[in-house]
Each structure stands twice: as C-alpha cells, then as structure tokens.
Write a structure and sequence with these properties.
The protein is mainly α. The chain is built from six helices and two strands; from the N terminus they run H-H-H-H-E-E-H-H.
C-alpha cells in the first residue's frame, strides 16, 4: 500500500491547498481579521448561545487556541465576553458587537462573491463532496473517539 494514494493523504493535501487559497484571499482583500477569526464570527452568527468549549469542538482547535482567537476578536471590539450563570456553572457568554456584525456581513458578502465565482459545472460536485466529507468526519470522530481540547 502506498499512503500517498490513500483518501487521508488526498484529503490532507486538498485541505491544505484550500486553506492556503482562503488565507491568500483574506490577505489579498486586506481583511482586518484572520480566516480563523472569521470562522469564529461565522459560528457565533449561526449560534449566538455557543460557548468557548463548543467553538473549540466545531473549529477543531484546542480550547486554549480558541481562547487566543476570542481574545484577539475582543481586543478588536468585534465580540464581547461576559460571565453568566448557566445552571450551577458560570460560563462566558460571547456576543458579536455591532462593529463585529457589520464587519462579518461585509466580509460574508465578499466571500460569497468569491464562492459564486466557482465554475458552476463543479458546484454540484462540491456540494456532494461536502456532504460526504461531513459523514466521513463525524464517523471517524465517533469511531476513533477524537477530541479537540
């Protein structure tokens, strides 16, 4: 068996290439936040009740690493973090500020235009691949008890 001819290898290479495409796109557009910070804003816009531990799980980053991104977003006044009581625990509620919402919407529009510029012939294939990759990822996480903490 040649590892370089396996699905994990191809996925890893493709993931790295696409990540670099997006990092370059962010730099080219002089966005004031990183791709990782944008992903966190995106997650917060979808689920405003999310907490840091859940963000870490979704983004496949450690809790500490996620905390650094949150601190950066907070320093840029794009989010606020407030301790709140949830049951018997105190958790930090993360909210996107009005400045953060405006930036997120502006960037989302630019990113959507970029995504829309993809060749329409491969768009259906991409959507099918995304669905299958989610299935593979979720299965692997369960099967191999993968945790990102």
């Amino acid at each position: 068996m040649n590892y370089t001819k396996t699905l994990p290898y191809e996925l890893d290479l493709t993931s790295r290439v696409l990540h670099e495409v997006m990092v370059s796109f962010f730099k080219k557009n002089n966005f004031p936040i990183t791709l990782e910070e944008f992903i966190i804003l995106d997650c917060l816009s979808i689920n405003p009740e999310i907490i840091q531990m859940q963000l870490a799980k979704i983004t496949l980053k450690g809790r500490g690493h996620t905390g650094k991104f949150l601190k950066s977003l907070e320093d840029k006044n794009l989010i606020s973090r407030l301790p709140v009581k949830k049951g018997s625990k105190v958790v930090v509620k993360i909210e996107i500020t009005s400045k953060g919402k405006a930036l997120y919407e502006e960037m989302s529009s630019i990113i959507q235009q970029f995504v829309d510029s993809i060749n329409p012939e491969i768009e259906a294939k991409i959507n099918a691949i995304i669905k299958e990759l989610r299935f593979i990822r979720e299965d692997a996480i369960k099967k191999f008890n993968i945790r990102f903490e």
